[in-house]
Design goal:
Elements: H1 3-14, H2 18-24, H3 28-46, H4 51-57, H5 60-86, H6 94-117, H7 128-140, E1 155-157, H8 163-188, H9 192-217, E2 221-224, E3 228-232, E4 240-243, E5 252-255, E6 260-264, E7 268-271, H10 276-289, H11 292-298, E8 308-316, E9 319-328, E10 331-336, H12 340-349, H13 359-366, H14 371-385, E11 388-391, E12 396-397, E13 407-411, E14 414-418, H15 425-452
Antiparallel strand pairs: 1-2, 2-3, 3-4, 5-6, 6-7, 8-9, 8-14, 9-10, 10-11, 12-13, 13-14
Helix pairs in contact: 3-5, 3-6, 5-7, 6-7, 8-9, 10-13, 12-13, 12-14
Length: 454
């Protein structure tokens, strides 16, 4: 035997067997192998649709990784050092397993950070163990539509317009039509075998496509309470809730012209597919209810203030002023033709928003305030526009003019006229009746005071 072969044989024989290495490493190799299986399982789960549902149903997927993570790095370093000192036998599985664990662990770390960053729940430097604990917390949270204490109401915000769902439905309908017509033609031509052989798989594929497309194109649902925004996402995306007290300046933004609203608070949510009107409504309501005073007062109301808003004109000093009137049970407020929505929003919050919005959106949010507070907001807005604020005790609604024809209110020499939308007539009559009942009650009280000599 040559000198080189003799040295190689001695070196190979001097290397410990894989079994010896496993024994000397005192279970570290087995820990690494177990970690590889657990990391792969969790990474595959996070890469799948509906991952959050799987984690909620099987918390052991995260816990299994957390069990090995604290000791894994030490096990990897000891194993690599021992292998470097004593050498690996040719064909040994241990160095390959060590390399695979490091690779899968790195990919899992990036995946966990990506999942959490989509909701602004983690910094980019978050460790894997800390990220897993945050992910465990998130996946175990139940996002409920049930109202909590301090949430007397919930508003369903104009959910995404569903245009993608309509397109998907149209495509699927055309697909079904073409398939059925094709099979019918083949049967008429006597090609029964071709119809069955070709139509069967096509039918199955179209059925699967129908289910998948309908799930992916289904619009989500947004609910708003005085305390939180709840997003029930479409398809297999996890639901989310954002506390309104966590919203800061620029926490509600419109992202591009497609109607995507970005909400950034204790979580980050991108609400896609809104119409322009739906996006404006959501933004105004969120901006209103992120005001601490508005939220606190909304938590104390037990019903929405009834009101109607309509285009109106005010005659003052022989001149007619155009604007918009807001009729409530305790008075009427006239806001002249300025940016009425912005004026009322500022009167309620002291803030301005960098986009245009209608008065009706602000009224919708403020109608969930105590009526006296709403009166005060409207009075400030009316004064800011040079309009008018009349109480029901000082003004009179013309009784001989039906509301279908005209709203006609007078106070001294001033006259307010306008027309209600057909959908507001029922509320308008209730409010006018409240005015008259209030005046009647005041008159009865005055007569009692006179009779008692007080």
């Amino acid at each position: 035997m040559s000198e080189r072969n003799r040295i190689g044989a001695v070196t190979t024989e001097s290397r410990p067997s894989e079994g010896d290495l496993r024994r000397r490493l005192e279970g570290r190799v087995e820990l690494i192998e177990s970690a590889l299986h657990r990391y792969r399982l969790l990474h595959g789960t996070l890469a799948s649709r509906g991952w959050w549902r799987t984690l909620r149903e099987d918390p052991s997927l995260i816990q299994g990784v957390l069990d090995v993570e604290p000791t894994l790095l030490e096990a990897l370093e000891r194993t690599e050092r021992r292998g470097g000192q004593e050498g690996w036998l040719e064909g040994s599985s241990i160095p390959r397993t060590v390399s695979q664990v490091r690779e899968v662990r790195e990919r899992l770390t990036l995946r966990v950070r990506s999942v959490l960053l989509r909701r602004s729940l983690a910094p980019e430097s978050l460790s894997l163990e800390d990220g897993l604990r945050k992910l465990e917390e998130v996946s175990s949270q139940e996002v409920s539509l049930k109202r909590m204490p301090g949430e007397p109401f919930s508003l369903r915000i104009g959910a995404p317009d569903g245009s993608s769902q309509s397109v998907a439905s149209l495509v699927l309908a055309l697909g079904w039509l073409v398939l059925l017509v094709g099979m019918f033609v083949l049967l008429v031509l006597g090609e029964r075998g071709v119809a069955l052989v070709g139509g069967g798989p096509a039918l199955g594929g179209l059925l699967i496509a129908t289910v998948v497309l309908q799930r992916r194109s289904a619009p989500g649902v947004v609910w708003l309470t005085p305390e939180r925004l709840v997003w029930i996402a479409p398809g297999n995306e996890p639901p989310a809730a954002v506390r309104l007290d966590s919203l800061a300046d620029n926490g509600v933004m419109l992202d591009g012209p497609e109607g995507t609203v970005c909400v950034r608070g204790d979580q980050f949510i991108r609400l896609k597919g809104f119409t322009v009107a739906g996006a404006s409504r959501l933004r105004v309501l969120l901006e209103l209810f992120r005001d601490a005073r508005i939220r606190e007062q909304a938590s104390r109301v037990d019903r929405q203030v009834e009101l109607v808003s309509f285009e109106a004109r005010l005659r003052r000093d022989e001149a007619w002023l155009s604007g918009r009137a807001v009729l409530l049970g305790r008075g009427v407020f006239f806001l002249r033709d300025f940016d009425q929505g912005a004026v009322l929003f500022h009167a309620a919050t002291g803030r301005n928003l960098p986009f245009h919005f209608d008065l009706g959106l602000v009224l919708e949010g403020l109608s969930w305030q105590p009526e006296a507070e709403l009166d005060a907001y409207l009075a400030r807005a009316a004064a800011a526009t040079g309009g008018a604020a009349w109480s029901s005790g000082d003004a009179r609604v013309a009784q001989d003019t039906p509301l279908e024809q005209q709203v006609h209110i007078t106070r001294g020499a001033e006259v307010l006229v306008g027309r209600l939308a057909p959908s507001d007539l029922e509320s308008g009559y209730r409010l006018v009746r409240a005015w008259r009942e209030g005046r009647q009650g005041s008159s009865d009280e005055d007569r009692r005071k006179v009779g008692s000599g007080s």
